Amino acid sequence: MTYVVTDNCIMCKYTDCVEVCPVDCFYEGENTLVIHPDECIDCGVCEPECPADAIRPDTEPDMEKWVEFNRKYSEQWPVITQKKDPMPSAAEMDGVEGKLEKHFSEAPGEGD
Fold first, then answer.
1. In whole angstroms, what is the distance from residue 71 CA to residue 90 CA?
2. I want to staple 30 with a disulfide (CB 3.0 to 4.6 A). Which of 13, 38, 102, 107 is the partner?
3. How far apart are CA 95 and CA 111, in angstroms?
4. Which residues of 21-40 are buried (b: 16+ CB within 10 A; e: fewer)?
5. pTM above the 0.85 mark?
């Protein structure tokens, strides 16, 4: 099992989760985060830290696409290990439907 970041992180990008990750398996895109599924040790400490409830275990239904999404971008984006400010749009974008299709950017973030 692994944990993955889902679309509710897009345009929010809270980074509370990266601070508690013991194996530094978070990677930063321009407007979202992902978890490298092969590096995640399934400790689960990140899930309750996410204010947007965007981190889910891969054992939930229909998570296969998110595992592959997280794998793809974690291999392209820089690692992030330190908390940063969320995106300015975080509060208003939390819970908005269709963020993957309407707002996702493939561009990498800055990382650490």
1. 24
2. 107
3. 25
4. beeebbbbbebbbbbbbeeb
5. yes
Q: What is the pLDDT of residue 112?
A: 87
Eight-state DSSP code of residue 108: B
The 3-class secondary structure across 46-102, one letter per residue, is CHHHCCCCCEEECCCCCCHHHHHHHHHHHCCCCECCCCCCCCCCHHHHCCCCCHHHH
The per-residue pLDDT for range 53-97, each reduced to its tens digit, is 999 999 999 999 999 999 999 999 999 999 999 999 999 999 999
Alpha-carbon distance of 28 to 58, in angstroms, equals 20
The strand ranges marked E within the chain are: 3-5, 26-28, 33-35, 55-57
Q: Find out whether 42 and 62 touch, Cβ atoms under 8 Å.
A: no
